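LOG
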Amino acid sequence: LPDREKMKTQMEALIYHFKIVTEGFAVPPGEVYQAIESPRGEMGYYVVSDGTAKPYRVHMRSPSFANLQALNTMCVGKLLADVVAAIGSIDIVLGEIDR
């Protein structure tokens, strides 16, 4: 982005700033997966680009979804009352799971 002071005084800088903000950056074609640590576990982002300013595909992997998948293994051979405690211990958010 152009310098803020130049943007306030030069018309070309203002037009350049406007085009970058409205059209976005053109990223090279390809795909990338990036994982970051969130309070509930690993959150992952998978982005596929076709070379334009808008991504071709974006997929977000929420930590609650991965934690819920482990529930089946955690509850094998346990009582039904233990399932409630297991769900509470993995601290899932149902809004993250239903996407």
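LOG (cont.) second protein
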Amino acid sequence: MYFLNILFFGALALFFAYGALNNFLARGNLRETYRHWGYPDGFHYVTAALELLVAVFLLIPGTRVFGAALAICVMLAALATLFKAGLRKQAVAPAVVLAVSTIGLVAAYGTLS
């Protein structure tokens, strides 16, 4: 069971670390996309910081509950942004990550003493 926890939370942390890196570097037209969505310049750094926090929290057993809860908040914000922009088809991946993060929250909460 310990191995499954490491695998599950490690994979989820990797996803958020990758997202943090992409948002931090803001390659291509990401900055323009954030502006189009109504976010201020530099907001991609806020997203990157939140995703990096999620990744770190998920890797530490004592903070996994906080990491999973923050992951849920980040994915809800992503979904709200996409729905507001009318990009429903692009909402599938964040919805899946939201579901996986919710499972992670339940799993992490179940390991608290």
